[in-house]
């Protein structure tokens, strides 16, 4: 299973994509995975999930900043290449993203990427970056939804009633990296009141248009033990997309 990434293009003014920074929040505990250590530091075939995630972005001409729990900063710096920035995160994702932003230098394009998506192909990063360079302020990757989806109303414990069937052709399952102009991401995180499950949700809430490019099935997120088992089987098979 292969997909060749497109060229990592230069910015319109001729400068290289060093104007891009990839922030990888990895400060979460990952309790749903059922491991005794933070999810990003769980072993994945002899390397941590975090190392494999960083491997996927090193071919980009971009600054990489990893955000980890304060007590694991030293461990992360030991595991990762010296050119990767490592900073301490906070209790919430938004706090960690802001910590990454503070270490992003003068990058005008910021990508926020889940450490728990260690097999995301480089081609997905390139699509997001190219869409930002074409003039969009916020861009996210997504894939079509395969399952039939229904809106339900809870009527009892373990029992719900269908109220309507959703048109899945209008839906996308959203992945990362999520890309923004620096100004858009700073504005989105200026007020983190309320609920948002991703950075794009914060942007949407303040009226920033969010565009969707094609994602990839390999960008699946490790959340549960089942997800981890699937990723390990993919690595065993050698069907990793770069």
From TrEMBL:
Keywords: Isoprene biosynthesis, Nucleotidyltransferase, Transferase
Enzyme Commission no: 2.7.7.60
The organism's place on the tree of life at top rank: Bacteria
Broad EC category: transferase
GO terms, biological process: isopentenyl diphosphate biosynthetic process, methylerythritol 4-phosphate pathway
Catalysis: reaction(s): 2-C-methyl-D-erythritol 4-phosphate + CTP + H(+) = 4-CDP-2-C-methyl-D-erythritol + diphosphate
Gene3D superfamilies: Spore Coat Polysaccharide Biosynthesis Protein SpsA, Chain A
Keyword tRNA-binding found: no
InterPro entries per UniProt: IspD, IspD/TarI, IspD/TarI_cytidylyltransf_bact, ISPD_synthase_CS, Nucleotide-diphossugar_trans
Site (Positions MEP for the nucleophilic attack): 168, 221
Site (Transition state stabilizer): 32, 39
A Gene Ontology molecular function term of the record: 2-C-methyl-D-erythritol 4-phosphate cytidylyltransferase activity
Family: Belongs to the IspD/TarI cytidylyltransferase family. IspD subfamily.
Function: Catalyzes the formation of 4-diphosphocytidyl-2-C-methyl-D-erythritol from CTP and 2-C-methyl-D-erythritol 4-phosphate (MEP).
Protein name: 2-C-methyl-D-erythritol 4-phosphate cytidylyltransferase
Species this protein is from: Gordonia polyisoprenivorans (strain DSM 44266 / VH2)
Lineage: Bacteria, Bacillati, Actinomycetota, Actinomycetes, Mycobacteriales
